[in-house]
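Worked example 2:
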Amino acid sequence: MDFNIDLRNDPERKTAGTLTVNIWCTTECPAVGDLDPDRAIERRLLELISGTFYTGADCATICADWERSDEFVFEGGSNARDNTAPEVYGLTMTFALMAFPEQISITPDPVQGLNAWAKQHFPQMNVIAFDELPPIWKPSDEAPALYWRFEGMSGNNQQSYAVAWFTGKFAAHVIADSVAERNKWTKSIIEFAQIEGEVVLSDGSPMFINRLEVRHSADPLREGQLGLTGQYGVLNQPQKELAQTKLLRPNLQHEKGAIGIMAEAAYKTAELAAKARQLFGTTPEVVTVALRGAGMESATVEEARQMVQDFLGREAQ
């Protein structure tokens, strides 16, 4: 066998590329039971690759999904010409590669709020871009995969005294072995969301659920079977380098300057990741993985800088 991976950028996230596997056989290759050797290998590769998820150290996840298999004849005889068996023949298997990127934004982060809400009510599920997942894994009926995707948001100029309101659209991808179990999990999620009516975001503010819809005919890998529309608020305040948080030592303002106060303030992971290049000279994904690997939900700038340096040092080794 040989294989080739072609990657491409797709703004809609539907595909990340193509995996092509060629299976080469000769006339000397024995049959496997009632199957030709190339078909026996094809069956095994479908079990190993199709529907398998691959998660990297940066939390980026890609799924391989079988699309088609095509027979080929490389050299030797031809059934069409002289009815003789070819000396070399085989199959070309094509798999679509679909990306499930981590969608971290600034506080309040509706996607992270939905991830935490789903994990709280459905701990058996593997929440992609939220849980720590193994490098190679497959969803099952007992432990399916869930992925919340941010489709877009809009503002309607609706404002209260201290909050500007936005409407966000999200899609949930529910992935299990069987269609029946996949539909059961989807129904359970939408019922919990309908009953509760809101999702609490990371800053403690609510996102009110305005609309829910189930699309059982939608592709669970490409489109997502559950649609959710929610309204959430953002505090009306001047733009800052980092969101203000409670200082660990309030009296520091009388002891140090602004730099000292910033060094002692504890910030959430999402806030530090949003300023990754400015503060640490790296990407938001590296900051997120470094803090999560250390089991930290919040940290000071100096603490985060040390964790990022330690993480990059381990990666270099």
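The chain has three domains: 2-100, 110-235, 250-316. Residues 250-316 form one domain.
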